[in-house]
Amino acid sequence: ELHLHSRASTDTGSWFLNRGALPESYTSPEDAYRAAKAKGMHYVALTDHNTLAGVAEIAHLPDVIVGVEVTSGFPGEEDAQVHVLVWGLDDAEWAEVDCLRPNLFEMLDYVRAVDLPHSLAHPLHRVGVHQHPALAAQACNLLDGLDHPGFVVDPLHAHERDVVVDQALEV
User: Fold this and answer.
1) pLDDT, tens digit (0-9, with 9 covering 90-100), for 103-155
2) Most CB contacts within 10 A, which of 41, 75, 120, 154?
3) CB count, 10 Å around CB of 125?
4) DSSP state of 73
5) Would the pLDDT of 13 be above 90?
6) Alpha-carbon distance 41 to 105, whole Å?
7) Residue 169 backbone class (left: φ over 0; alpha: ψ -120 to 50; beta: rest)
């Protein structure tokens, strides 16, 4: 599993969850790990929102990939945000990503420069109050859609990505 949340995922970008101070999951990192492994997952990447706190609790376990779901934005578009999954980072790299995350372009430049695997998370899921189809399409193009070199994406997902981008550009 490469996109999994625990109770450490409290900064979700969801106006509803944030308003109620609710986490995206109530599952402990260790329970999330055990459940994923019990279902036959080869690797477990805990990707809590804007924190490594959850994955730090299980990083010592076998087959754990350190990851984070980063809320990032377009410069000059304060309410236009996207979620980017980043894997394999250490504390120093996370500190830099965290500093750069307000500007999607700068954050992606850094992530690419240090060769961290990354992907756009759920491009049609609204982050914040407003949905911006044209910016979602731009994010898909910036991040090469939902895939990243080194990760296998079946043709169905690639086709869905292309349809989403085409439709978003028509808006």
Assistant:
1) 999 999 999 999 888 888 876 565 554 556 666 666 666 665 443 333 334 44
2) 120
3) 12
4) E
5) no
6) 33
7) alpha
Query: Which tokens is 33 given?
Result: 């790990």
Helices (H), 15-103: 15-19, 29-38, 53-56, 91-100
Q: Residue 171 has which token pair?
A: 């808006």
Angle between helices 91-100 and 104-113 (to 10 degrees): 150
Chain centre distance of CA 88: 13
Cα pseudo-dihedral 114, 3, 46, 49, rounded to 10: 80
Q: Is the pLDDT of residue 165 over 50?
A: no
Largest CA distance in the chain: 47
Number of CB atoms found within 10 A of residue 3's CB: 15
